[in-house]
Amino acid sequence: MPNEQIRLIEELAFNAWPASVVQIADGWRLRFYHGVTRRANAVWPNAVYGDMDMESRLRIAEDFYARRGARPIFQICPAAQPSGLADALLQCGYTPSAHTSVQVVQLDALASSAESKFPGQVSVGDLDESWFDTYAEGEGMSQQTRALRRDILERIGPRAGFALARLDGQPVAVGMGVVERGWCGVYCVETFSAHRRQGAGGAIMAALAAWSQAQGATQMYLQVMLNNTAALATYARAGFRQLYTYHHWLAPEGGS
Asked: Pairing between strand 183-191 and 219-225?
């Protein structure tokens, strides 16, 4: 499996979910966003520009998080650099968690019949209050988290489309697509518990697929936790396949 494609998707995902602070350290990107979501608060270590030694790299990264009162996290996938990074983290007491599958599908092959099974309507447009309120309610967000999540969404650089499914006029599900370089990344998929297994999630995916194709995309990717068996089964039925996995490696409690 070529690491070039993995690195591309990791870069697209970096752009699709922006942190508020990013520090470049000889290729590594150190991200911080007040502890809201692991991705926006983890080191992106998929490029190396110079010959800085591992000890220096780790010291810079750990100092970055210490100054913000945060626990260091590394997002480690097969494209992580330099080689031996995971072993170095293990020796420093880091532990892997949040095993995540990155799945892809050709948009032409994405099941399009799901939309007809949903008895409501789905629209894709810009970020608005109806979409965000549905997303926030589905996630059970606090007021502070709402403000931070809204800020992330408003600062996305590439083109983003926000899908909202309604049943009898009432919002029941949401999803977001971010299009860049022929790919559509899928994020923020939420369906109210009372409306699951009614085709709303499939309708969201179908709508985002059609929207992203209109923007020139030919492929789609998403990230799903490997312990989320229901979601994995749903995406498999839609034609997604696993391309690679990543872990978030956490520094030991009370230090690194």
From this structure: parallel
Tokens of 38: 């692991």
Using CA atoms, how far apart are residues 57 and 47, in angstroms rounded to an integer? Answer: 12
List phi, psi (to 5°) of 231: -65, -40
> What pLDDT shows up at residue 108?
87
Structure tokens at 99: 């095993």
Over 90: is that where the pLDDT of 96 sits?
Answer: yes
- One domain for residues 24 and 144: no
Domains identified in the chain, total number:
2
Task: Name the pTM for this structure.
Answer: 0.93
> What token pair was written down for 57?
């790299």
d(CA 227, CA 216): 32
| 3-state secondary structure at position 97 | strand
At residue 97, what are phi and psi to the nearest 5 degrees? -150, 175
Q: Where are the alpha helices (DSSP H) in the chain?
A: 3-16, 54-66, 85-91, 114-117, 129-139, 143-154, 200-214, 229-237
CB atoms inside a 10 Å sphere around CB 11 = 17
Residue 256 falls within a domain, yes or no?
Answer: no
